[in-house]
Amino acid sequence: MAAAAVRYLRSAGSPTVAESVEALPRPDLRAVADDERAPVPPAEFRRVLGNFATGVTVITAPPAEGEATPAGFACQSFSALSLDPPLVVFMVGRTSRTWPLIARAGVFCVNVLGADQGELCRSFAVSGADKFAGVDHEPTPVSGSPRLAGAAAWIDCTIQAVHTGGDHLIVVGRVEALGAADGDEPPLLFHRGRFL
Question: Domain 2-16+55-183, what fold?
């Protein structure tokens, strides 16, 4: 599994890579033997952890080679990781169709959404559509990843490492540039399956 993540990073290292990168299949991971009861049912896991309110972001990347539009997806699994060096981390499902495009780009921007951007988040949560249709954005200063208009903050990054974590990948980004909007707009929060 780790080798697959390394392949993503290696392919992202060169902007001239022409081969397509496919989404990884869902991993066949077992924490218990077939004759044992799972320690935590998935539905209960989701219900209980839904009590932890999270901020909401959109992770974006410039168009991969051969693609007409940038890549992006809604992500609530994001956090600061390190001050020295400045690192952030986000998690993405291993079956994501957007992740391979971001991996090939080797760069990304974290767009921290404001309280009034719930509909924008929903548009980036769908699969298969042109998520950037009608969305105002401009390139970030270092990576050229889309910085979404109206975002409360943005963090321009290069991919530093990718680690496996069950059915997700843990993506570590080195911060190259960042900024925040002026004003006191509250962030968009997600709690118990809905926006706050």
Answer: Pnp Oxidase; Chain A (2.30.110)
Residue 164 host element (H or E): strand 153-165
- The C-alpha angle 179, 89, 55, rounded to 5 degrees, equals 65
**C-alpha distances in angstroms, 149 versus 19, 62, 83, 117?**
32, 15, 26, 10
> What predicted TM-score, i.e. pTM, was given to this entire model?
0.79
β pairing state of 153-165 and 146-148? unpaired
DSSP structure class, residue 67: -
Using the 8-state DSSP alphabet, how is residue 26 labeled?
P
| Residue of 93, 57, 48 lying closest to 192 (CA atoms) | 48
Question: For the segment 91-147, what is each residue's pLDDT rounded down to a tens digit?
Answer: 999 999 999 999 999 999 999 999 999 999 999 998 877 899 999 999 999 999 999
Domain limits, the chain: 2-16+55-183
b (16+ CB within 10 A) / e for 149-160: eebbbbbbbebb
